[in-house]
Structures are given as structure tokens and as C-alpha cells.
Amino acid sequence: MKDLSKLREDFPVLSRKRGDKPLIYFDNAATSLKPRQVIEAVKSYYENYSVNVHRGVYSLAQEATDLYEEARAEIARLIGCKPSELIFVKNATEGINLAAYGIKWRRGDEIISSIMEHHSNMIPWQIVSRRFGLKLSYAGITSSGIIDLEDLEGKLSRNTRLVAVCHVSNVLGTMNDVKSIARIAHDHGALLLVDAAQSVPHMPVNVRDLECDLLVFSGHKLLGPTGIGCLYIREGVEEELDPPFGGGEMISHVELDGYRLNEMPWRLEPGTPNIAGAIGLAAAIRYLRAIGLDVIREHEKRLTACALEILEELDGVEIYGPRDPEERCGIVSFNLRGVSGDLVAALLDEFGNIAVRSGFHCAQPLHRALGIKSSVRASFYLYNTMDELEVFRETLSRICRELEVRAER
Ligand code: PMP
Q1: How far is the CA of 118 from the centre of ligand 1 (A)?
Q2: 362 part of the active site
Q3: Are residues 241 and 296 part of one domain?
């Protein structure tokens, strides 16, 4: 077993304390902390070669362009695609919107999403459905908290143009069987878009294995800077999209009354891109690959198993999603019976300097399906430790004692 505790020194935020209590950061599903290597890469761009890319012929411009395109290649390697299939966007949300506004919809086209999606993978489909007269429906979930494949298949028709689902739920931590969903979608001639915001940072993900057509993720959840994310578009699928935004760089030839589109991937990247963001994200990916995403997955599985054990031992705790850590990623959502999630999160902060999220985590329909308004979510990453979970156990026990939480009310 690889000891990951040494790498904590790479993350400056982890040295923060409140009083004598070190920060325990369990809000990794919202965003991750950044290691020095990423901060340095971003700083180095601004200090040493902060010029535009793809424009100048002078050597500094060439250097910046090379670093920017090398970053793309590094990121493409991570998910097993070609650099030409990888578009830089602002975040997962923008990637989904780019697909939603880019696809050349035909009246009567159908989109199928699921009730377990983050709002980012719901609202864009609602907007374009209204605008272009499309039919939108949602697949339900099974009692194990994954998309019900039978229900999904029953909703598909010859008119289904796109299936858009998450790989990993940002509430339940469960993993959908994306490969089977791809087969079902393709059997009906539909495209599959995968929201991989919660999977790419935490496990090996390969777009060829998943057989998806489009895939999105955000850099900030995988140790990278904010403001950079990626949209993978399988080669050939770009023909189904019209660039929703126009401007410089995305064209190869312009007349007063027309233009010719540039090649992929630049045709979908108008204007000056987030150069420092791309370079910082590549540094983050080098950092993760040096550890190994399989190692990170195993580490998070151990933390999740321990978190589930802690929650199960306490009276009056409701846990959402399956109990088997094999069936979920490092995300555990729960409630203390009769206590608001916000209060639990505030007390975890006050008593233990533990950062967790409370609310509906941008997944209101899923919470409604679970019969709750909100939940408390603890989510882990490579720098979290068993010792931190011990503090979580003690702090949560104290909260249960002080609030007199009981098994039944
Ligand atoms: N999808 C999922 C599953 C997520 O967890 C998130 C972030 N919470 C998003 C999409 C949106 O990510 P971003 O805000 O970085 O665009």
C-alpha cells in the first residue's frame, strides 16, 4: 500500500489551522485543493512567457503555444483520446452547454437524461428543449442509486438524438454503467454524453473503453486551476455540431459574407483561451499520474469504507446510497435524523474545523426522489487520511450527543 500522507506537504492550504485545529477538508466533490506544482506552473506562465498563443511568429509566442498544445496532449493522454478531440472550456458546465447549443437539433429530436444528474446536466437540456421544440425525458434510478437501464432503454426511440448522463453521482458517489448505456444509446442511433466531473479526478477513465461520444470534466476538481475544463468530442461527431460562438482562431478563412471553419479542436475555441489554466491543468495531471489514478481510487475506497462504518455506528444517521465501498466513489451523503444539514455542517466546522458541504448539492430532483430536502456531504481525495476520519468520528459523536440525536423520533 502506497503511503500518500507525505504528499500533504505539497498542498499549502492543508497547513491552515483554526486555533489548534488543522483544517480537515472533506469538500472535494465541490473542488479540490491545489498542490505547489500547479501553483508554480500557473505562476511560471505569468512570470516567464505570458503572451498569446497561435498568433505571433516570435519565439516567445511559439514557446507559449508549444506549452499550451503540450498541455492539451497531456490531458488527452489522461482520458485516452487524440489532442484534436479535446476542446478547452471553462468547466464541465460550459462543456455541456457547448454541446447543447452546438448540436444541430432537428425538430422532434429527443434527449434523455436522468433524475440523478447535477443541474449542469439538466438545465442546458431544458433550455434547448424549449428553444428548439425537443422532447426531454429522464431515466429513473434503481434502489442501489444507479441509472435504471431498463427504464432508460424503455424511454429510447428512433427519435432519441442524445443520452446525457453522469458517470459518478455527486451526491451518492455511485458509478453508472456507462459502457452499457453507450451500447443502448448507439443501438438506437443516439449519441452519448458523459458528465465525468466526479470520475476523471478519482479513477482511471478512458473514453474508448466507455465508448462515449462526448465527455466533460472540470480542472478544478482534479487539482487544477479554476476556469479550465475539457469537452471530449469523438472524431467525426464534430460534424453534428455548429460552433455556438464565433470569433478569432476558430476560422481558417474569412470573407465579409462568410467564413471557413478551422480544424478541430480550434474550431470550437474562439478567442484567447485560458492559457495559464491549461498549463496548470496539465501540471495537475502530471502530478496525479505520478501517483496513479488506480492508487488514488484504492485510497479513497479505504476512506469511504471507514466513513460508512463511522456513520453506521452512530444512532440516528441516515446514509444515502449503497453501503459497499466497491459500489461508490469517495462521496458519502447523510443526515442526522431531525437535524438540518446546515447545522451539522456548521457544527463540524466549529467543533472540528471540518469542511463538508450541506444543501442539495445542485441535485434537487435527486434529493426529492430520495424523499429529502438536503443532505450533508463528505467527499475525499488523495490527501485525506484515516486520522482525519478519526476526528470526524469524534466530532460527529459529540454533535449527536449535544443535539440528542436518537435512532427514532
Ligand atoms: N457535474 C457534476 C456531477 C458535478 O459534481 C459538478 C460540480 N459540482 C458539475 C457537473 C459542474 O461542475 P462545474 O461547476 O465545475 O462546471
Answers
A1: 7
A2: yes
A3: no
The beta strand positions in 173-249, using DSSP E, are 191-195, 214-218, 229-233
How do residues 127-152 score in pLDDT, each as one tens digit? 999 999 999 999 999 999 999 999 99
CATH number of the domain bearing residue 285:
3.40.640.10
Question: Which protein residues touch ligand 1 with a CB less than 6 Å away?
Answer: 29, 91-93, 118, 120-121, 166, 170, 195, 197-198, 218, 362
Pocket test for ligand 1, best of 198, 361, 364 (most atoms within 8 A of CB): 198
Res. 86: pLDDT tops 60: yes
Residues 6+ apart with CB under 8 A from 284: 34, 35, 37, 38, 219, 222, 223, 224
Helix intervals (H) in 103-191: 123-132, 149-155, 178-187
Q: Which domain holds residue 117?
A: 38-289
One domain, residues 20 and 79:
no
Residue 357's CATH number: 3.90.1150.10
Query: Does the residue 31 lie in any domain?
Result: no
Reading the block at residue 173, the C-alpha cell is 458517489
pTM beyond 0.90: the answer is: yes
Choosing from 212, 230, 362, 400, the catalytic residue is: 362
In angstroms, what is the span from residue 218 Cα to ligand 1's centroid? 7
- Whether 119 and 251 map to the same domain: the answer is yes
Q: Single out the residue in 289, 308, 330 at which a domain terminates.
A: 289
